[in-house]
């Protein structure tokens, strides 16, 4: 945990008292607020707006005692919810937190399906406690490491072989206590399981927010067959097994890719905002935050730049010793003279045009 001093410095006693932390592992900001009933509500809104700007769309949970009546036509409650809503935050608590009123609340900019909340009485205060559980998704390092023991077909055969070779005569021995027998049984089974199914570390991308339920019952038998082929090749090292394993692995990988793509297509099709769903997935895969960067550029600054950039570029072009006329290729223009009576003072436009046409044809 780290203290966010740039937010805590905004605290104003009675009006808006602030404590702010950032969880270093998830990079989630946790802000707690208290507004005294005697405080100025407009000052509170101003401080809260500054806090939300500092957070700059980074993932955050803002909670506290706001001393407004949520879920009613309370004007201050509507103003507060509108301010949070303008920054993409939603309210998590609906029930009463003090007697019949909901004075405390939790706001977050996580997706609605990424958090759950509850209210309970801790018997420590006249206010009910609020609790929020958040599913952290789409972090910069989206890889997830898990230790597990894959249950493979070869492992099952090994397990059955070990268990079948054990001496079970102790079960019928009358001089053994029943508890000793049970402990021995559990130890034997546990040892056989750990030998047959060794622990392995798997590291994979966590796509749970985008693709769900893609690993179906059609893929599980394929995985078991591939594991069996892999174990057979490790044991016998024949060329035929290597070729069969390679082809089967390629087929299995194609099926994995196809099912993931199909599941992602369904996720995008079901989304209310399909373009946003596509870009959310792209940012997730690239490990890029969706936070909007702070920009102090105004519309006038933007327009002025493009109005002035043209003359500025031209003025910076060094003078050229070559004249534009010199770049035009020269052509041999034939000379001619008008015959007698052509183009005289009494010649009108149409007569001159006819004379020119005659000369041109010659």
From TrEMBL:
InterPro entries, sorted: Endo/exonu/phosph_ase_sf
Lineage top rank: taxon: Eukaryota
Protein name: Endonuclease/exonuclease/phosphatase domain-containing protein
Species per Swiss-Prot/TrEMBL record: Popillia japonica
